[in-house]
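The data layer described in this paper is built around a simple, fixed record for each protein. Because each token names a local backbone shape, the row as a whole describes the fold. We quote a single record here, exactly as it is kept in our systems:

***
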Amino acid sequence: MAKTGAETAGTDVRAAGADGTDGSGEGVLGYEQARDELIEVVRRLEAGGTTLEESLALWERGEELSKVCRHWLEGARARLDAALAESGAEERGGSDEA
């Protein structure tokens, strides 16, 4: 059986979902893991020397990894915003008691 461009590119191109999973049931792809793989995908694309099919597979994987990273960063931002809002509410509540 002939290998697809994704297989010959040496990159697992299973799409990661918005929750960071890769659909294999192996769990969530962490931010650092997704970021590091994205850096490698970009490096390989910039280096050239891949076929069109391999380049497209790498590009698609990069897009999915970008979504995973964005999901993690948006979650971190929401947590920070919630913590800041809670901290601000406590400060306002504490100044009323003085």
Helices lie at 5-8, 31-47, 52-97. The longest helix spans residues 52-97. The radius of gyration is 20 Å. The mean pLDDT is 79.
